Amino acid sequence: MLKGIDLQVENGEVISIIGPSGSGKTTLIRTINALESLDGGEIILYGEDYLKGGAIVDKRQMRAGVRRIGMVFQSFNLFPHRTVLDNVMLAPRYHQLLDQPVAREQALALLDRVGLLAHAHKYPWQLSGGQQQRVAIARALALKPDIMLFDEPTSALDPELVGEVLKVIQSLAREGMTMLIVTHEMGLRPVDFRPRGADGERRGAGRYRPAGDPQPAGGPFSATNP
């Protein structure tokens, strides 16, 4: 249950959502990409109604909005019977956004970007947890999202594997990707949004931007829930 949420996110901002178990952190980001419905309040995406009062404002508009949002799950959620390359190609092909050769070229470029080009033809079970999570990031990037959501992206990893995932996320931050991250990793907490305890009410919010970083121009979305 989420109550008292009032959140506005600016372009290029990285927000960490932190708090105890059961405080609604995952629920919050799942509402942003319509995996959870709203009973009240609204979410505005790039100045347009996206979700409101538990109802989809417009199905076509909602689907278009969802495609602008990539999500990386805690448990990877890769297809075990598909190769790494196939996992990354699947979404653009499913949505008929790219022809097969173009989708393959893009997927290979994304795997190279996350340092896994040499593993393109392996299966997820042949990879470490950190490698699987980097595949999941590449897969989310395949639809060229404007916003990335991460749900505890390192919590299922052994400590020695956390760093390789953090490097990819920090690289995205340097490139100006807007991100919301449910995390307990200190390396991913430049900005905090804190739910309050088990009732899910917001406890407080703070923003930090390193000195010299330009002020983002315009916010991609805002969420309110009285």
From TrEMBL:
<keyword id="KW-0378">Hydrolase</keyword>
<dbReference type="InterPro" id="IPR017871">
    <property type="entry name" value="ABC_transporter-like_CS"/>
</dbReference>
<dbReference type="GO" id="GO:0005886">
    <property type="term" value="C:plasma membrane"/>
</dbReference>
<feature type="compositionally biased region" description="Basic and acidic residues">
    <location>
        <begin position="191"/>
        <end position="204"/>
    </location>
</feature>
<keyword id="KW-0067">ATP-binding</keyword>
<dbReference type="InterPro" id="IPR003439">
    <property type="entry name" value="ABC_transporter-like_ATP-bd"/>
</dbReference>
<protein>
    <submittedName>
        <fullName>Glutamine ABC transporter ATP-binding protein</fullName>
        <ecNumber>3.6.3.-</ecNumber>
    </submittedName>
</protein>
<keyword id="KW-0813">Transport</keyword>
<keyword id="KW-0029">Amino-acid transport</keyword>
<dbReference type="InterPro" id="IPR003593">
    <property type="entry name" value="AAA+_ATPase"/>
</dbReference>
<dbReference type="GO" id="GO:0005524">
    <property type="term" value="F:ATP binding"/>
</dbReference>
<feature type="domain" description="ABC transporter">
    <location>
        <begin position="1"/>
        <end position="224"/>
    </location>
</feature>
<dbReference type="InterPro" id="IPR030679">
    <property type="entry name" value="ABC_ATPase_HisP-typ"/>
</dbReference>
<keyword id="KW-1003">Cell membrane</keyword>
<dbReference type="Pfam" id="PF00005">
    <property type="entry name" value="ABC_tran"/>
</dbReference>
<keyword id="KW-0547">Nucleotide-binding</keyword>
<dbReference type="GO" id="GO:0015424">
    <property type="term" value="F:ABC-type amino acid transporter activity"/>
</dbReference>
<dbReference type="GO" id="GO:0016887">
    <property type="term" value="F:ATP hydrolysis activity"/>
</dbReference>
<comment type="similarity">
    <text>Belongs to the ABC transporter superfamily.</text>
</comment>
<keyword id="KW-0472">Membrane</keyword>
<feature type="region of interest" description="Disordered">
    <location>
        <begin position="191"/>
        <end position="226"/>
    </location>
</feature>
<dbReference type="InterPro" id="IPR050086">
    <property type="entry name" value="MetN_ABC_transporter-like"/>
</dbReference>
<dbReference type="InterPro" id="IPR027417">
    <property type="entry name" value="P-loop_NTPase"/>
</dbReference>
